[in-house]
């Protein structure tokens, strides 16, 4: 239950409110998750006026402010079409209008395609205080235990990487029970991540090329048993989805990569 609301106009002001001793205050992104929390009374620091909703693209990569709404991300031409497709499957239009990238990464579980794709892209998040940068692969498994700061300010990834994902769900509108995402860099480096189960997506492979993506995906599902599908089913399907992703990436013109 929200018992205090503050809307700072600068990052410094937001940080001082969030770090004030003996105050239980949380950053407020789009509020789609936070506004449903009823179990305890807490204050919220609304981040909408502190300038964290900008998207910058350079040769080095794309940097997306943590307050960027999912629909804003989808409307950005520099954003890979696979990221747009992931958002479209993950979130209905009303959620896309409100939810922010930061709030999504903090709350989404292993069944999020967007989070699976950003993990594949080896995205990095930046946290305050201290401008600490941490790769999603290092942060996601520990995000409930040891946050690197009180506020995520941005998320960045390389724009020239080619990425593809494939998924299975019980119906087109249902959440996935398995997602395989593959990213490939110009050097041939290939990362494979899996989602559709568990608390967060997981890394299956980070290798010099795509060979073994199917075996790595199969092995990563060793314990992927839950109420939606057996590990054995996921093992078999993961290998096939990984092959499909690699075939799609092979279809890109080599000079583009
Ligand atoms: C109807 C509905 C359907 C959904 N479907 C899915 C789904 O299919 N898959 C899925 O994975 N999730 C789903 N979700 C959950 C979704 O991941 C979150 O509701 C949403 O993305 C949170 O974003 P937000 O910006 O609204 O965050 P908020 O609700 O504002 O905040 C969420 C949490 O993140 C923290 N936070 C927010 N921004 C920051 C920041 N910049 N730095 C530090 N902490 C921050 C807040 O303090 C809070 O703890 C669904 C939610 C709803 C309401």
Strand content: 25-35%
Number of helices: 9
> Quick one: biggest sheet?
5 strands, antiparallel
- Overall residue-averaged pLDDT value: 93
Would you list the SSEs in sequence order as H and E?
EHEEEEHHHHHEEHEEEEEHH
Number of strands: 12
Bound molecules: flavin-adenine dinucleotide
Q: Determine the structural class based on helices, strands and strand pairing.
A: alpha+beta
Radius of gyration: 19 Å
The poorly predicted ranges are 253-257
Helix coverage percent of residues? 25-40%
How are the strands ordered across the major sheet?
4-5-8-6-7
From the N-terminal CA to the C-terminal CA, the straight-line distance is 48 Å
What characteristic shape results from the CA principal axes?
Answer: globular
Write up what this structure looks like.
The protein is α+β, with helices and mostly antiparallel strands and 257 residues long. Helix content is 30%, strand content 26%. The protein is built from nine helices and twelve strands. The strands form three sheets. It has a five-stranded antiparallel β-sheet with strand order 4-5-8-6-7. The chain has a four-stranded antiparallel β-sheet with strand order 9-10-11-12, with helices on both faces. Strands 1-3-2 form a three-stranded parallel β-sheet, covered by helices on one side. A hairpin with a 2-residue loop joins strand 4 and strand 5 (61-65). Helix 8 packs antiparallel against helix 9. The protein starts with a strand and ends in a 7-residue tail after the last helix. The relative contact order is 0.12. The protein binds flavin-adenine dinucleotide.
């Amino acid at each position: 239950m929200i018992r205090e609301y503050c809307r700072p106009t600068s990052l410094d002001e937001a940080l001082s409110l969030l770090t004030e001793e003996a105050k239980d205050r949380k950053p407020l992104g789009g509020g789609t998750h936070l506004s449903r929390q009823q179990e305890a009374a807490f204050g919220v620091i609304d981040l909408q006026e502190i300038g964290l909703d900008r998207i910058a693209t350079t040769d080095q990569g794309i940097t997306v402010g943590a307050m960027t709404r999912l629909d804003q991300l989808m409307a950005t031409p520099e954003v890979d079409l696979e990221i747009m497709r992931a958002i479209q499957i993950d979130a209905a239009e009303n959620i896309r209008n409100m939810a922010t990238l930061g709030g999504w990464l903090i709350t989404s579980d292993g069944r999020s395609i967007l989070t699976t794709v950003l993990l594949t892209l080896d995205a990095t998040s930046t946290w305050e205080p201290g401008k600490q940068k941490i790769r999603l692969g290092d942060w996601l498994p520990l995000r409930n235990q040891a946050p690197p700061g009180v506020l995520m300010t941005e998320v960045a990834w390389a724009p020239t990487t080619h990425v593809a994902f494939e998924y299975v769900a019980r119906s087109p509108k249902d959440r996935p029970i398995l997602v395989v995402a593959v990213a490939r860099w110009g050097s041939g480096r290939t990362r494979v991540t899996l989602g559709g189960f568990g608390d967060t997506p997981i890394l299956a492979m980070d290798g010099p090329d795509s060979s073994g993506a199917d075996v790595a995906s199969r092995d990563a599902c060793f314990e992927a048993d839950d109420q939606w599908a057996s590990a054995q089913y996921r093992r078999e399907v993961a290998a096939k989805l990984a092959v499909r992703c690699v075939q799609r990436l092979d279809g890109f013109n080599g000079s583009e990569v």
